[in-house]
Amino acid sequence: MIDWLAANPSLQALEDATMVVLKTQELAEIDVIADGELYRFDVNHPETNGMIEYFVKPLGNVRSEITRTDIEAFGKQKGMSFRVRPAAVVEGAINEGTLDLVNAYKRIRPLTKHAFKFTITGPHMLSKTLLDHHYKDLPLLSHAIAHVLAKQIKEIDADVIQLDEANLPGSPEEWEWAASAINIMLDAIPKTPAVHLCFGNYGGQTVQKGTWEKLIAYMNALHTDHVVLEFAHRGYNELEFFTDLRREIGIGLGVVDIKSTVIETPELIAERIENATHVLGEDRIRYIHPDCGFWMLKRSIANAKIRALTLGRNLFEGR
C-alpha cells in the first residue's frame, strides 16, 4: 500500500508510513483503526507484511536457515500446499527469544489518539508453517506457540487485539485443538478480543476451500467478543449458518472485497449490511470490515475502498 517504504526501509520511514495509514483511516472516519500491520514490515517479505516470519523467526530454539532437506520434509506435510518452504524449523522447546510484540505496540500507540486495533497471527496458522523436529505433534506445537504469545499479549492494552487464522477454514477437522490453543491467547487479551477468519489472501488469491458451516463449532468455542469474517468475495449465501453462533459473540461482517480492484459503492455496502441484518438481526452485526487486509492493492484503490466503507455505513445508519 505504501510503495515508497520498500525503497527506503528505515525506522523513520516505517514510522512515517504508519502515520499515513493511521491518518487515512482517521480522515475516513473509521471507528477502530489499525496500523496496516506495518509494525512487522520486512523488506524481504513485503508481499505478506511478515504475517508468518515476523512471529516465528525470532523465537528461541527455532532455526530460520532452511536446508534442501528441510524443504523436502516440509513438502510432505499436510495443509500448506501454497508454501514450498517452511518459515522456520523447531529444534527445541519454544521460548520468546527476541520476539518483542510489546515494544512494537508501544512504538505505534503514540501515533494516534483513536481507538486502535493490534493484529497478531494465530497459533494454528503459525504452527502449520513450521517444520517441527521437537514436539512432533501439531497440537502440542500450536499450544506452545500460544503460551509464548499470550505472555506478551498480557502487556498490550490495545482497544482490540485481533488474532488472525487464515488456514483453519481449509482444515475444519482441526478445530478442537485449534480452539484450545487460540483461547490461551484470547484469555490473555486485556481489553477486547477478536478473531479474524478468511479463506486466504495470498497474492490476491483464495488459497483455502471450505464453508463457514463447518466452522460454527469452532467459533462457538472461542473466548472472543466478535469474529471478523470474509463475505464480500464469497457472497452472502452462508449467512444463515450464523444463526447457530452463540448470541454473545458479535459478527464483524466483511463488506469490501479486497481481492478485487473494483471500488464498492456506498449503496452496495449499505445493501450488504441490510441483507445481513435481515438474516441475523441488527444486534448481531457488531462491526463492518473489509474481508481481509489491503496489502496487495494499490494505495489509491485501498483508500477509496476505506472511504466507501464508512460512506456505506453512514448510508445504512441514515447519517
Explained architecture:
The protein is an alpha/beta fold and 319 residues long. The protein has one domain: TIM Barrel (Alpha-Beta Barrel), CATH 3.20.20.210. Helices cover 36% and strands 16% of the residues.
Strand composition percent: 15-25%
**Distance between the ends:** 29 Å
Shape: globular
CATH topology: TIM Barrel
Please report the number of helical segments: 11
CATH architecture: Alpha-Beta Barrel
Mean pLDDT: 93
Strand order of the largest sheet: 1-4-6-7-8-9-10
Number of strands: 10
Helix content: 25-40%
Tell me the count of domains.
Answer: 1
> What is the CA-atom radius of gyration, in angstroms?
19 Å
SS-derived structural category: alpha/beta
Which residue ranges are poorly predicted, with pLDDT under 50 across at least 5 consecutive positions? none
Which CATH class is shown? Alpha Beta
Largest sheet: 7 strands, parallel
Helix-strand sequence: HHEHEHEHEHEHEHEHEEHEH
Describe the structure concisely for a colleague.
This protein is 36% helix and 16% strand. The protein is an alpha/beta fold and 319 residues long.
Topology:
Elements: H1 3-7, H2 11-27, E1 33-34, H3 53-56, E2 60-63, H4 68-74, E3 88-95, H5 101-108, E4 116-121, H6 123-128, E5 130-132, H7 138-153, E6 160-165, H8 175-186, E7 192-197, H9 216-220, E8 226-229, E9 250-256, H10 266-280, E10 285-290, H11 299-317
Parallel strand pairs: 1-4, 3-5, 4-6, 6-7, 7-8, 8-9, 9-10
Antiparallel strand pairs: 2-3
Helix pairs in contact: 7-8, 10-11
